[in-house]
Amino acid sequence: MTDFLCPVCQNPLQEDHTRLTCRNGHSFDRAAEGYVNLLLATDKRSKVPGDNKQMVQARHSFLQSGVYAPVRKAIAEAVRVVTAGGTVLDCGCSEGYYTAAVFSELQAKNIGAEVIGIDISKFALKRAAKDNRRIRFAVASAYRLPVADRSIDTFLSVFAPVSASEVFRTVKENGHLVVAVPGAMHLYGLKKVLYDEVFIREVKIPAVDGFGIVDEKTVSYETELTDHRLIDDLLLMTPYYYKSSPEAKARIQAISALQTEIDVRILTYARK
User: Fold this and answer.
1) What is the pTM of this model?
2) Residue positions in the annotated binding site for S-adenosyl-L-methionine?
3) Per the annotation, where are the binding residues?
4) Rounded CA gap, 91 and 49, in Å?
5) Measured at the alpha carbon of residue 183, what is the angle toward residues 206 and 238, in degrees to the nearest 5?
6) Element (H or E) spanning 154, and its range?
7) What distance in Å separates the CA atoms of residue 27 and residue 16, rounded to the nearest whole number?
8) Strand partners of residue 28
9) Backbone angles phi, psi at 145, to 5 degrees
10) For a disulfide at 113, which of 54, 81, 82, 149, Cβ 3.0-4.6 Å?
């Protein structure tokens, strides 16, 4: 099992059912849901970092509808494990929707790998850990991960910021990075309702020193939402909710159905 590192002194943490401790006596309680909070106050950029409770609930409700199921399947299939008993780290895992799919895919292939989920939102990890007891979750920053150098076989990032330096530090020789990013047309129909002018977005492909892209897949399809609760959840789980005017939100409330594109690019990098 891959040890979490103490965020104070970077020594390995020994785990039991109630807490994690290092040899210097730093101790971190395990929450009732099973996750551990390793985010120091000095690493917080706000009082309550990451997704709030409302966003987490909206994302959980929407994803459980199955609209993103093809994306989830493609991401799970993209994950590779280099060594027997290796480790997959899902960085920015939110409520664990894709993390759980990766775990199930590895189990189905009889690959005895460990899966770890990291997110900065304690609300997200409360949901993730409660739903997925066999996966280890920790609250931590993507820019200061509590894992050792060269300890990760596959580093996964789904719609989340990627710290190139942390990828380079943590991924093993011959390891992989899997990144899912919004495609040019992702949620175009939603944006057409919200904004007067909509532009085709530029796809942002992360560049990571020491890694090269070895595989790429696009998952693209249209979906129609006729349940307004799902439309509301979709808006709330995206940054558009906080960037949209009251008038734009009123236009969303006025529609009876939403047809929009799902367009996701999944890139696999290998360490050179």
Assistant:
1) 0.95
2) 68, 95-96, 186
3) 6, 9, 22, 26, 68, 95-96, 186
4) 15
5) 95
6) strand 152-158
7) 11
8) 20
9) -75, 140
10) 81
